[in-house]
Amino acid sequence: MQHARRYLDHAATTPMRQVAIDAWVEHAGALNPGGQYRSGRTARRVLDDARELIARLLGADPVEVIFTASGTEADNLAVTGLYRSSELERIVSTPIEHPAVLEAVKALEVIAELLPVGPDGRVSDLSALDTPAAVACCMWANNETGAIQPIEEVIARASAAGTPVHVDAVQVVGHLPVDFRALGATTLAASAHKFGGPRSSGLLLARRSPAPAPVLHGGGQERGIRPGTLDVATAAATAAALEEAVGEVAAETVRLSALRDALREGILARVDDVLVHTAEPALPGHLHLSFPGAEGDSLIMLLDAAGIEASTGSACASGVNRASHVLLAQGVSERDTRGAVRFTLGHTSTGEDVEAVLAVIAEVVARARTAGMV
Ligand code: PLP
């Protein structure tokens, strides 16, 4: 029997909003916004409008908005660029960063001091920030657990030591209110496909000073921080998606937390021995759990067969499912990380999606646990 598909992996990517598709189609024919003739000026106007709208929605100046090709690129340009623009050799980061930050730091071959993380998935001791560093990195909310980090405190502590701060806000932009100016971060990364814009479209907000040193070298677009000819249609679609997402933040926070809470309570009522990894304060649509004794891969496959699309939430490189570095960092045992499943809700989620999970979860977990015993 064919099941209706139930998509509960919005933190991985969320369906494009119609306003973004419309904006993209409207401007698909735009030419090079750097051209000094009429078609160039026309494209430039669309790009400028997108930049101004994004700046307004995120509390930044238009010049601080840099279009990139992904959240990953924005993270890399910021971390590597801020490190290279400093004379210091020290970096402070966290063990729960997305690979876009973790691997960028690793590639610098510098000793990175990692802030410890508590069982609630939040950085717990900020004292490493009191010693000056080339850059401090802290994500605003974690992509696996949804845990919202004490980002204001992190920025205050780092700033007091004169350390620039990069914030990976890929899971936050379009989901929580963001005011870049008030936040006081040096750079901030976002990704359009997490808020209903096109995939392969990122944003880097970068203060004028200290600015990241160039990592990519080319024609000098985007203040030389991200050279390359810009895709005007993608910029317009990103701005349109962000405008709609930001406009819905308050209502969606209420709606999604209610759905997420119903999902969590329903699962806890139907299945024994469940570990809940998402603790408050967390993003409204996130629910990360472990079903000890089951393998995440089996759970995902069985859910998929029942029409439910969710993920383990951990890095799945070359098809090998590794224990989540995020769960390990918050003290979950290796065995328990193996039975992890992440459900994430978003703008197309409904009560029926939650019901669909609850209708099958007991049997799915029982079967995955039986499979896990052999
Ligand atoms: N940072 C976080 C916290 C993410 O969740 C993601 C995407 O999963 C990224 C960075 C990378 O974004 P992108 O997929 O646009 O490269």
From TrEMBL:
Q: Residue limits of the Aminotransferase class V domain?
A: 7-357
Single Gene Ontology MF annotation: metal ion binding
Catalysed conversion reaction: (sulfur carrier)-H + L-cysteine = (sulfur carrier)-SH + L-alanine
Keywords noted in UniProt: Iron, Iron-sulfur, Metal-binding, Pyridoxal phosphate, Transferase
Required cofactors, per record? pyridoxal 5'-phosphate
Q: What is the superkingdom listed in this entry's lineage?
A: Bacteria
- PANTHER family, per the entry: CYSTEINE DESULFURASE, CYSTEINE DESULFURYLASE FAMILY MEMBER
- Which family, according to the similarity comment? Belongs to the class-V pyridoxal-phosphate-dependent aminotransferase family. NifS/IscS subfamily.
What is the name attached to this protein's record? Cysteine desulfurase
* Gene source species: Corynebacterium hylobatis
